[in-house]
From TrEMBL:
InterPro entries referenced in this protein's UniProt entry, alphabetically: NAD(P)-bd_dom, NAD(P)-bd_dom_sf
Protein known as: Sugar epimerase
Organism of provenance: Fictibacillus aquaticus
SUPFAM superfamilies on file: NAD(P)-binding Rossmann-fold domains
Domain NAD(P)-binding: 7-190
One Pfam family from the record: NAD_binding_10
Superkingdom to which the source organism belongs: Bacteria
Length: 214
């Protein structure tokens, strides 16, 4: 499976690029906004393509052409204003869904945020971010694509353990970025995860075991 990775230059994206680059069953095309981002990702085993989430759907569809799946790990980041949250986390995600449809790509994996589906549990100070994730996820769910929505908890830079918990309504907690990347890699062809969304935290069970029992 050839995967277009959107947000490849982010911390989760780079870890996922490395996993896909080493894979014997998948390959990766990393979407970059700046040419200088390409070299590091190519060292990790990626083909790269230049495109911008603030550009046109046609540009994004062209970047995705020839791929079998799209993984969206992009985010505006904590240092930007609500305008970029709207343009990247919501509209950028929505445009990638449209691009997938235009390019004839059925498989789409979205990295969202813990409890984004449940307004009652949104962090008061991050409500614009959660609203963006909430509606981006809804657009994907209603798109007709074969989707998986992964909603990780607080992201930490500790080494991954390969052990997680996944469910519809998990309490707040954390998970290493490495384990988020491993989980996204594993859901790509895990049919139990098709057309499902789930919260994701560190846990006691192996990733493959958890996903096969969703």
């Amino acid at each position: 499976m050839k995967v277009l990775l959107v947000g490849a230059n982010g911390q989760i994206g780079q870890k996922l690029t490395e996993l896909l680059g080493k894979s014997d069953k998948h390959s990766v095309r990393a979407m970059v906004r700046k040419p200088e981002q390409a070299q590091n990702l190519e060292k990790l085993g990626a083909e790269t393509v230049k495109a911008d989430l603030e550009g046109s759907v046609e540009e994004l569809a062209q970047a995705a052409k020839g791929c079998d799946a799209i993984v969206f790990t992009a985010g505006s980041g904590g240092s930007t204003g609500h305008d970029k949250t709207l343009l990247i986390d919501l509209d950028g995600a929505a445009k990638m869904v449209e691009a997938a449809q235009q390019a004839g790509i059925d498989r789409f994996v979205m990295v969202s945020a813990l409890q984004a589906h449940n307004r009652e549990n949104w962090n008061e100070q991050l409500k614009p971010y959660y609203a963006a994730k909430h509606y981006a996820d809804k657009i994907l769910e209603q798109s007709g694509l074969t989707y998986t929505i992964v909603r990780p908890g607080g992201l930490v830079d500790e080494p991954g353990t390969g052990r997680i918990q996944a469910g519809r309504d998990l309490e707040r907690g954390t998970i290493p970025r490495e384990d988020v990347a491993r989980t996204v890699y594993a859901v790509l062809d895990e049919k139990q995860a098709f057309n499902r969304g789930f919260d994701l935290l560190s846990g006691d069970s192996a990733i493959e075991e958890v996903l096969s029992n969703l």
